[in-house]
Amino acid sequence: MPSSPLTQLALPHVASLHAYTPGLQPTEPGWVKLNTNECPYPPSPRVAEALRQEIGADGSSLRLYPNPKSSPLRAAVAQLHGLREENVCIGNGSDDILNLLVRLFCSPAAAAGFLFPSYSLYPVLVAIQDGRSEVIGFDRSMRLPFEKIAASTAKAFFLTSPNAPTGVAFTNADLERILATFRGILVVDEAYVPFASENAVPLLARFPNLVIVRTLSKAYALAGIRVGYALAQPELIGLLDRVRDSYNVNRLSQAAALAALGDPAYYEALIAKVKATRDANLARFAGPRGWFTYPSQANFIFTEPKNARGESGPAVAQSAYDFLCRRKVLVRHFPSHALTASFLRITVGTDGEMSALNESLDAWLKTPLA
Ligand SMILES: *Cc1c(COP(=O)(O)O)cnc(C)c1O
Q: Fewest C-beta atoms under 10 Å: which of 27, 73, 95, 224?
């Protein structure tokens, strides 16, 4: 399609740009929504209370700009991780932080590296600023290709751990092995790490080229409030502060995040519940169903459906996906690549939602076309 004069005024790389494809957010009620790794439980009740307080009787506080550095929140995050405020930068979601890192380290001449499959936003952020992407593929084992990462010339390498969409987590020993050879910035995107058994924070003191990215969207049940953060050495945090919007996190989001971080007991129970539901369902997929399923340390399950004849593959996954959709159970299917096309990614929901999912999968197995 020839582009219009208006589009031609935009920078040339924008013409060929494909926006990120978010998971569906249906607006009508009645869906069992297991497609975007949101938390099935509400945030701490302190969050709603803090929001009401921040708004006050007449919303008058909203006249005023927010704290430009989100300083109270930086202090709370630092305390949570045993770090100092200088080690923390707050973002408008962790996507904001990831974007700032690409802004800092990536250009047509300086590549950003990442693995495939992993979080599909990285290539989009790189393309937005006309940067160069260096993509290293996993094989079906989903083990880290250490030699290829060591040989990478990327200025910044984005590693998702636990990985999406597989749920496979990498150990700190794995990360140390990368950090021993890789000279660029290693960004470890720990969006799902509250559901995992290990995290990279203990490595920060020893590796100045390590950046950890976290979000409150998943484990803190605050996807709608858009708060994430970076943990790194003060020098790197200073670079992030140079390139971020001066008021990048609004007043309500700062208040909500502070309240959530102030209720660790609530979240400890919430995370334990999600993990228990995950593990029960992992056992069911891998056991009685006999479906190949990666060992997940996240709040989702990446499983390869088998139909009644014991077949798997892209068409089988599509059939299961379509059947679930017709029953208003929404999961995620990534049909465009061989490593993902025969799988479904299923967010861990409540026990009731997982029962609905499993009943629908049983019904799918009984259909003649499955
Ligand atoms: C969900 C997710 C994010 C985005 O988090 P936000 O804070 O909501 O922007 C970042 N990285 C990965 C791997 C994710 O799955």
A: 27
Q: What is the pTM of this model?
A: 0.97
Q: Is residue 209's pLDDT more than 60?
A: yes
Could you tell me the residue ranges of all domains in the chain? 45-263, 265-366
For 45-263, CATH number out of 3.40.50.720, 3.90.180.10, 3.40.640.10, 1.10.1660.10 equals 3.40.640.10
User: What does the pLDDT average to over 284-294?
Assistant: 95
119 lines ligand 1 (CB under 6 A): yes
Task: Kindly indicate whether the domain formed by 265-366 is annotated with CATH number 3.90.1150.10.
Answer: yes
Q: Single out the residue of 111, 180, 120 nearest to residue 150, CA to CA.
A: 180
Cα(182)–Cα(83) distance, rounded to whole angstroms?
24
Query: Which residue in the block uniquely carries the two structure tokens 């630092």?
Result: 78
Of 252, 197, 257, 188, residue with least CA distance to 221: 257
The pLDDT score that the predictor gives to residue 4 is 85
Distance CA 71, CA 89 (A): 9
Question: What is the structure's pLDDT at 1?
Answer: 55
Spatial distance between the Cα atoms of 32 and 347, rounded to a whole number of angstroms: 10
Of 114, 359, 15, 70, the closest CA to residue 240 belongs to 70
172 Cα: distance to centroid of ligand 1 (angstroms): 21
**In ligand 1, which atom is closest to the CA atom of 164?**
13
Calculate ∠ Cα 21-227-110, nearest 5°.
60
pLDDT of 13 strictly over 80: yes
Closest residue to atom 15 of ligand 1, CA basis? 191
> Residue 128 in 3-state DSSP?
helix
Place of tokens 């930086």: 74
Residue given tokens 């996507």 in the structure block: 95
User: Which ligand 1 atom is at minimum distance from the Cα of 160?
Assistant: 13
Nearest CA to 195 out of 298, 282, 296 is that of 298
pLDDT at 2 exceeding the cut of 80: no
